[in-house]
Amino acid sequence: MQDLLPQRIVCLTEETTEWLYLLGQEARIVGISGYTVRPRRAREEKPKVSAFLSAKIDKILALKPDCVFGFSDLQADIASLLIKAGVQVTVFNQRSVDEIFSVLYQVAAMVGQAEQGLEKLAAMRADLDAMAQRATAFKRRPRVYFEEWDEPHMSTIRWVSELITTAGGDDIFPELAAMPMGRDRIIASGDSIVQRAPDVIIGSLCGKKFRPEKVAARPGWQDVPAVRTGQVFEIKSADILQPGPAALTDGVAQMHRIFSQWEALHG
Q1: 250 CB-contact burial (10 Å; exposed 0-12 / middle 13-18 / buried 19+)
Q2: Is cis: bond before 219, omega within 30 of 0?
Q3: 1 — pLDDT class (breaks 50, 70, 90)
Q4: What is the separation of C-alpha 255 from the centre of its chain, rounded to a whole number of angstroms?
Q5: What does the pLDDT look like over 160-192, one tens digit per residue?
Q6: How far apart are CA 112 and CA 117, in angstroms?
Q7: Closest C-alpha to 48, from 63, 26, 27, 28
């Protein structure tokens, strides 16, 4: 049976790498994304063969993978080149928390770890349910603006919005979270953010650091409740913007701590 499972896997994004390590299947991984930081030892153990929008196709082919995992329509061009070269490619396009759970189960099953995967996913789901239950005790829920990019302003993707709710907050742009494409989550004017008066601002930018002091210095933002009370925070993109284990554990836990502290002061 083991002979039927993929033995040489390239992961074009971090979440499948982290998940395979958690399943004890890291020996199958022969190449990873250069953006991978979870688990940290993967960077020392595995060749880095891709960014997010680009990949070293020749290097990937030289690794002779029997399976490549990717994420998002934005990796369609990479997938196309590999498929044309005869490589089996599976590109997932998860956007919601439920879809993340589904993808993680599929990956576990593909490497013969369906039962172990289900156990780990059940534990993650139970932790999220317990967190949501704790949040029901909040007397007030903070209004939250989650900034995924700053120039232009971009609100966050669906799974982050859902995890904000689980953690005890209310996304101030829920209508944008439903949009699957990043371009559809661009906020035309910062004034609309100011008008929605977030109590907490969280930033997470892929490729650069989110700086709360720059948010506080934006013209017209001085009276935004989050700025006025110093409730502007960064969560590392690797902890929340990867649609995998990190977001379901560390990322949402960081948000819950932020919201719990806010509620203790303002509830």
Answers
A1: middle
A2: no
A3: low
A4: 13
A5: 999 999 999 999 999 999 998 888 999 988 999
A6: 9
A7: 63
Rounded CA-CA distance 23/153 in Å is: 37
Q: Are strands 9-11 and 29-33 parallel, antiparallel or unpaired?
A: parallel
In whole angstroms, give the CA distance from residue 73 to residue 62.
Answer: 25
**Contact by Cβ (8 Å): 93, 73:** yes
> Tokens representing 17?
């790498």
| CA count, 13 A, side-chain hemisphere, 225 | 12
Structure tokens at 184: 């559809």
Question: Residue 67, SS3?
Answer: strand
C-alpha triplet 12, 167, 156: angle, nearest 5°: 45
Backbone angles phi, psi at 116, to 5 degrees: -65, -40
Percent over 70 (pLDDT), the chain: 99
The secondary structure of residue 59, as a DSSP letter, is: H
Gap between the Cα atoms of 29 and 9, Å rounded: 5
3-state class percentages of the chain: helix first, strand second, coil last, to nearest 5: 50, 15, 35
Q: What is the Cα–Cα distance from 67 to 44, expressed in whole angstroms?
A: 21
Q: CA-CA distance, 20 to 106, in Å (whole number)?
A: 12
Amino acid type, 253: A
For residue 55, give the DSSP letter. Answer: B
Q: Please name which of 144, 214, 142, 200 lies closest in space to residue 177, comparing C-alpha atoms.
A: 144
User: Whole-number mean pLDDT of the chain?
Assistant: 96
Q: What is the CA radius of gyration of the chain?
A: 20
CA dist list (Å): 10 to 17, 50, 110, 229, 260: 9, 10, 14, 45, 39
